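B., you asked whether I could sanity-check this one before it goes into the benchmark set. Here's the sequence:
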Amino acid sequence: MLLVAQCLIHSKMATNNNDNLLNQITEAENAHDVEKLIALVTDDIVIEDVPFVPFGMVMKGKDGVRQGYAFFFEAAPDYKIEPKSWVTSDKSFASEWVLTATQKGDFPGIPASGKRFSIRGCSFGEFENGKLKRKSDYWDYASLAKQLSGESK
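And here's what the prediction gave me:
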Protein backbone atom coordinates (compact mmCIF):
# COMPACT_ATOMS: atom_id res chain seq x y z
CA MET A 1 0.00 0.00 0.00
CA LEU A 2 2.84 2.36 0.80
CA LEU A 3 4.30 1.77 -2.68
CA VAL A 4 0.98 2.69 -4.31
CA ALA A 5 0.76 5.87 -2.23
CA GLN A 6 4.34 6.80 -3.12
CA CYS A 7 3.63 6.24 -6.83
CA LEU A 8 0.51 8.41 -6.63
CA ILE A 9 2.43 11.16 -4.85
CA HIS A 10 5.24 10.98 -7.42
CA SER A 11 2.72 11.05 -10.28
CA LYS A 12 0.94 14.09 -8.77
CA MET A 13 4.28 15.88 -8.29
CA ALA A 14 5.26 15.13 -11.90
CA THR A 15 1.88 16.42 -13.08
CA ASN A 16 2.30 19.62 -11.04
CA ASN A 17 5.81 20.06 -12.45
CA ASN A 18 4.49 19.54 -15.98
CA ASP A 19 1.69 22.05 -15.37
CA ASN A 20 4.41 24.49 -14.33
CA LEU A 21 6.43 23.63 -17.45
CA LEU A 22 3.42 24.38 -19.69
CA ASN A 23 2.97 27.70 -17.89
CA GLN A 24 6.64 28.57 -18.48
CA ILE A 25 6.38 27.61 -22.16
CA THR A 26 3.28 29.79 -22.59
CA GLU A 27 5.01 32.70 -20.84
CA ALA A 28 8.07 32.33 -23.09
CA GLU A 29 5.89 32.20 -26.22
CA ASN A 30 3.91 35.27 -25.20
CA ALA A 31 7.10 37.16 -24.30
CA HIS A 32 8.59 36.07 -27.65
CA ASP A 33 11.57 34.81 -25.63
CA VAL A 34 12.98 32.12 -27.90
CA GLU A 35 16.01 31.44 -25.69
CA LYS A 36 13.83 30.84 -22.63
CA LEU A 37 11.72 28.50 -24.74
CA ILE A 38 14.85 26.66 -25.92
CA ALA A 39 15.84 26.06 -22.28
CA LEU A 40 12.50 24.27 -21.70
CA VAL A 41 12.81 21.69 -24.49
CA THR A 42 14.90 18.55 -25.04
CA ASP A 43 17.78 18.56 -27.51
CA ASP A 44 15.78 16.29 -29.84
CA ILE A 45 12.52 18.28 -29.61
CA VAL A 46 10.02 17.96 -32.45
CA ILE A 47 7.25 20.54 -32.86
CA GLU A 48 4.72 20.13 -35.64
CA ASP A 49 2.35 22.90 -36.59
CA VAL A 50 0.20 20.29 -38.33
CA PRO A 51 -1.61 22.55 -40.86
CA PHE A 52 1.81 23.86 -41.97
CA VAL A 53 3.44 20.40 -42.22
CA PRO A 54 2.62 20.14 -45.97
CA PHE A 55 4.72 23.31 -46.38
CA GLY A 56 7.67 21.64 -44.63
CA MET A 57 7.05 23.38 -41.31
CA VAL A 58 8.31 20.86 -38.74
CA MET A 59 10.69 22.16 -36.09
CA LYS A 60 13.35 19.59 -35.17
CA GLY A 61 15.98 20.12 -32.51
CA LYS A 62 16.71 23.34 -30.69
CA ASP A 63 17.95 25.09 -33.83
CA GLY A 64 14.74 24.16 -35.66
CA VAL A 65 12.65 25.54 -32.79
CA ARG A 66 14.76 28.69 -32.69
CA GLN A 67 14.25 29.25 -36.43
CA GLY A 68 10.56 28.31 -36.42
CA TYR A 69 9.58 30.59 -33.55
CA ALA A 70 11.72 33.45 -34.88
CA PHE A 71 9.80 33.11 -38.16
CA PHE A 72 6.39 33.19 -36.43
CA PHE A 73 7.31 36.09 -34.15
CA GLU A 74 8.50 38.12 -37.13
CA ALA A 75 5.43 37.27 -39.23
CA ALA A 76 3.04 37.91 -36.29
CA PRO A 77 4.81 40.33 -33.92
CA ASP A 78 1.87 40.59 -31.51
CA TYR A 79 1.43 36.78 -31.32
CA LYS A 80 -0.33 35.79 -28.11
CA ILE A 81 -1.49 32.37 -27.04
CA GLU A 82 -4.22 32.06 -24.42
CA PRO A 83 -4.57 28.63 -22.84
CA LYS A 84 -8.20 27.65 -22.25
CA SER A 85 -7.64 24.27 -20.59
CA TRP A 86 -5.13 21.49 -20.32
CA VAL A 87 -4.53 18.16 -18.74
CA THR A 88 -1.12 16.73 -17.95
CA SER A 89 0.33 13.45 -16.79
CA ASP A 90 3.89 12.55 -15.94
CA LYS A 91 4.60 11.83 -19.64
CA SER A 92 2.13 13.79 -21.77
CA PHE A 93 -0.37 16.61 -22.13
CA ALA A 94 -3.34 17.84 -24.10
CA SER A 95 -4.31 21.51 -24.25
CA GLU A 96 -6.86 23.82 -25.82
CA TRP A 97 -5.91 27.38 -26.69
CA VAL A 98 -6.72 30.50 -28.69
CA LEU A 99 -4.00 32.26 -30.66
CA THR A 100 -4.46 35.90 -31.68
CA ALA A 101 -2.10 38.02 -33.72
CA THR A 102 -1.74 40.39 -36.64
CA GLN A 103 -0.17 38.93 -39.76
CA LYS A 104 2.67 41.26 -40.78
CA GLY A 105 4.68 38.71 -42.77
CA ASP A 106 4.00 35.73 -45.00
CA PHE A 107 2.75 32.47 -43.52
CA PRO A 108 3.19 29.21 -45.42
CA GLY A 109 0.70 29.46 -48.28
CA ILE A 110 -0.73 32.81 -47.08
CA PRO A 111 0.86 36.12 -48.13
CA ALA A 112 1.13 38.95 -45.60
CA SER A 113 -2.19 40.72 -45.14
CA GLY A 114 -1.74 43.09 -42.20
CA LYS A 115 -4.96 41.65 -40.76
CA ARG A 116 -5.71 40.55 -37.23
CA PHE A 117 -6.80 36.94 -36.71
CA SER A 118 -7.83 34.54 -33.98
CA ILE A 119 -7.74 30.76 -34.20
CA ARG A 120 -8.73 28.03 -31.77
CA GLY A 121 -6.57 24.98 -31.56
CA CYS A 122 -5.33 22.12 -29.48
CA SER A 123 -1.94 20.62 -28.78
CA PHE A 124 -0.78 17.19 -27.74
CA GLY A 125 2.69 16.53 -26.48
CA GLU A 126 5.21 14.54 -24.52
CA PHE A 127 7.55 15.34 -21.65
CA GLU A 128 10.94 13.85 -20.89
CA ASN A 129 13.10 14.61 -17.84
CA GLY A 130 11.22 17.80 -16.99
CA LYS A 131 11.31 19.24 -20.51
CA LEU A 132 9.09 19.30 -23.57
CA LYS A 133 10.08 16.53 -26.01
CA ARG A 134 7.33 16.68 -28.62
CA LYS A 135 4.35 18.88 -29.46
CA SER A 136 1.80 18.71 -32.25
CA ASP A 137 -0.49 21.71 -32.75
CA TYR A 138 -3.81 21.24 -34.56
CA TRP A 139 -5.98 24.11 -35.83
CA ASP A 140 -8.13 25.00 -38.83
CA TYR A 141 -6.02 26.30 -41.73
CA ALA A 142 -9.15 27.21 -43.73
CA SER A 143 -10.38 29.45 -40.91
CA LEU A 144 -7.03 31.27 -40.80
CA ALA A 145 -6.91 31.68 -44.58
CA LYS A 146 -10.49 32.99 -44.61
CA GLN A 147 -9.78 35.57 -41.89
CA LEU A 148 -6.63 36.78 -43.61
CA SER A 149 -8.15 36.91 -47.09
CA GLY A 150 -10.98 39.11 -45.85
CA GLU A 151 -13.74 36.73 -46.89
CA SER A 152 -16.89 37.08 -44.82
CA LYS A 153 -17.50 34.42 -42.22
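One thing to flag: Helices lie at 2-30, 34-39, 61-75, 141-149. Otherwise nothing jumped out at me.
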